[in-house]
Each structure stands twice: as structure tokens, then as C-alpha cells.
Amino acid sequence: MIHENGKIVDIAIIGAGPGGMASAIEAKLAGIENIIVIDKAPHHNDMIHKFYKKGKRVDKDWMGIKFEFTGNVSFEECSKEEYIEQMEVKLQAAGVLDKFEYNHDIIRVTKNEEGLFEMIFGHDDIAEGIETIRARNVILSVGRMGKPNRPKYKFPKEIKPMLNFNLSKVQNGERVMIVGGGDTAGEYAYGLVELEDMPDCVVTLNYRKAEITRMNPINTEMCSKYLDNGKLINKMGVDVESLEQSESGKIQVNFTDGTSAEYDRAVYALGGTTPKDLLVNSGVKTGEWDVPVYDENTFETNVEGLYTIGDVVTDQGSIALAFNHASDAVKSIASKLK
Ligand SMILES: Cc1cc2nc3c(=O)[nH]c(=O)nc-3n(C[C@H](O)[C@H](O)[C@H](O)COP(=O)(O)OP(=O)(O)OC[C@H]3O[C@@H](n4cnc5c(N)ncnc54)[C@H](O)[C@@H]3O)c2cc1C
């Protein structure tokens, strides 16, 4: 779909699982037609496609908890395949299927000076115009199954604890290799060089390309500065071939150019967003167990106009619960849009 540049939608729904698709239907029924639904998968209900066994019965009362549908969207208990078909029919009947945009990973949403949400995409091949869409409200319904991308080579069991996806385990004095060429890798790399309580870390940036091409201008400038003055060790333009445990019990990295080096820790920033990353990067406060802080009646977070529903806010989520959350969130948005 080609989007008009700078289009402003009333609701951008991120995630096309049960919560996201019910939000789209509820919005339509509330008279809100100007919406977009964005999912990183190639179709709606991807989690169900991927994680439910073939022929699995889809229960309404999941995990022994009895649920009643409180909104306009419901389903009849059936098999996985029939459930997906039911949802397709419901979306078609509501006339919202053309609002769905697939294969787009959102890494954060930010509010601009005009109070409109901008969506930041995790990759470069963005459909024309979509990146310029602004939203008055956002519903995040991204579930809990998101995870960071991993490299293709194996993580040997003995060194797994030293192979991480964020900086939380880094200790002062460690030799750390950051792997990746995007903004997260850049921010990890120069962030670690600058961290006051880690003055003795020795940080290497490894990226398969020799040049920084995917970082924003600030991150490019910061990384280039530290690569130039040697505070960040440059291991760019070469890929990792394999990992093994070194004789001293550390990580031995074997590169594709035949060289190898030893590190205490490797931190991978290869894209792929966890729900927590997405929430925190979007300014949402999270409490215990990473559950976002939100209003239990409306599902609005501390960021005005930013709602989060479904599995993200529940530890025992279900389809019916996600449907009900969608109804409450859309009601709240509809009352504000009046
Ligand atoms: C094996 C299994 C069996 C289950 N069986 C049942 C059952 O029988 N009955 C029942 O009620 N519940 C069941 N559940 C639970 C139920 O599936 C979930 O509670 C429900 O799917 C939650 O819906 P959601 O919309 O919150 O999240 P999800 O279904 O996880 O959907 C999230 C969507 O967001 C997309 N997404 C994620 N991150 C991004 C991003 N950064 N950018 C763009 N898109 C993104 C994903 O691709 C996905 O499509 C089961 C769960 C599992 C794992």
C-alpha cells in the first residue's frame, strides 16, 4: 500500500495478534476509520500460526480462568486453523483488512513537538510513505514473544552466560565485543566507552561491513570519534565465523579473515525487539516483572495517548482478555477523539 506522505491517523495499532486485530475492529465499530495496523510478521495472528500446534483446540477459558467477552469481538472455540479463518472473516466483515501493513518491525514510538506519535522502524526497506505516518494515539499489542535476533553460528554451551543481548551483565574491566551495525550496537559501544562506573572496560565494535551505514547521525559521529581515537577498537569489515571457549575459559572469537581474539563478553545488537525494549524505548514506565505501568480501566500508559494491551500487560494472557482490553482502550480513545 502506498501511503500519502505525512498522513495523520487517529490510531496506529502495533501488533496484529488478538489484541491488535480486535482493536482494529473495535475502532471501526466506534466510527474511527482512520487507522493503521502494523505487524512485523507477514500475516495477522503470527504468534498463533507459529506457536500453536497443528489442530490445537483454541479455548476461550485459557489456563483455567473463565472469561466473558466484554467488547464486540468474540470467537467460537475451534481448532487453530479454524480460529485463524474466523479472524480473517471477522476482519473482512468489519472492512479493515486494508488497514494492515505487514513485515514492518517497530522499535519505538516517539511523540513529536506537535504531540503526534512517530514510529521508528527496525529495518531499511520501508514501504513508501509508511515511515512518515503520524498517529494521534498508539495501541501497542506486541505480545511477549518478541526476541532479539541471533547470529547464524552456534553459541557453545560453556560460554553462553558471556554471550548477551544487552549491557546489563557487563562488569568493569571486561574486554567486551559489541556485534552489530545499527543504532543499538552504536549506543552500546560508545555508551560503554563513556560509562563512568566502567572506566576499565576495553570495547571492540564488530560489524560485517567496514563502514557505519545504518546508524543515525549522532551515533555515527560518536562511534567514529571513538574509533578514530582508539577508545573503541575497530573490528569492522569482518564477520564472525564461530565461537569457542578459549584455554582460559573466555570467549574465543574466530573471524572470517582467519584471525581470532579473546573476550570476556560479547554483546549482540542485531535487531529484533523484545516487548520490554519497545516499551522502554517509547518512554513507558515499567514496574515489577517488566510489566508496564498503565491505567487498569483504559490501558493508557504514563505516555498520554499511548496504550498497551494483551499479553504485554498480563502474565496469564488469553485471546479473550486481549479482545476485552482492546475494547476498553478503543473506548477511551473514542471518548477523547469526540
Ligand atoms: C502455545 C500457546 C497456546 C495458547 N493457547 C491459548 C488458548 O487456547 N486460548 C487462549 O485464549 N489463549 C491461548 N494462548 C495465549 C494467547 O495466544 C495470547 O494470550 C494471545 O495471543 C495474546 O494476544 P496479543 O495480541 O497480546 O499478543 P500476540 O498474539 O503475541 O501478538 C503480538 C503481535 O505483535 C507482533 N509484534 C511483536 N513485536 C512487534 C514489533 N516490534 N513491531 C511490529 N509487530 C510486532 C507479532 O508479530 C504478533 O503478531 C496460548 C499461548 C501459547 C503460547
Descriptive account of the structure:
The chain is of the alpha/beta class and 338 residues long. It has two domains: 8-147 and 273-337, 3-Layer(bba) Sandwich (FAD/NAD(P)-binding domain), CATH 3.50.50; 157-268, 3-Layer(bba) Sandwich (FAD/NAD(P)-binding domain), CATH 3.50.50. Helix content is 25%, strand content 22%. The protein is built from seven helices and 17 strands. The chain has helices spanning 18-29, 46-51, 80-94, 183-194, 217-228, 275-281, 319-337, and strands at 8-14, 35-38, 57-58, 78-79, 100-101, 106-111, 117-121, 134-140, 163-164, 175-179, 202-207, 232-236, 240-245, 251-255, 260-263, 265-268, 306-308. Strand 14 (251-255) and strand 15 form a beta hairpin. Helix 1 (18-29) packs parallel to helix 3. The longest helix is centred in the C-terminal third of the chain and has 19 residues, at 319-337. It is globular. Bound molecules: flavin-adenine dinucleotide. The site of flavin-adenine dinucleotide (FAD) has 35 residues, from helix 1, helix 2 and helix 7. Flavin-adenine dinucleotide (FAD) binds at residues 14-20, 38-41, 46-48, 51-52, 58-59, 62, 105-106, 141-143, 145-146, 273, 278, 310-311, 317-320, 322.
Short description:
With 338 residues, the chain is of the alpha/beta class.
Profile the largest sheet.
7 strands, mixed
Radius of gyration: 22 Å
What is the helical fraction, as a range of percent? 10-25%
Shape: globular
Mean pLDDT: 92
Query: What's the number of extended β-strand segments?
Result: 17
The CATH topology assignment of the largest domain is: FAD/NAD(P)-binding domain
Low-confidence stretches: none
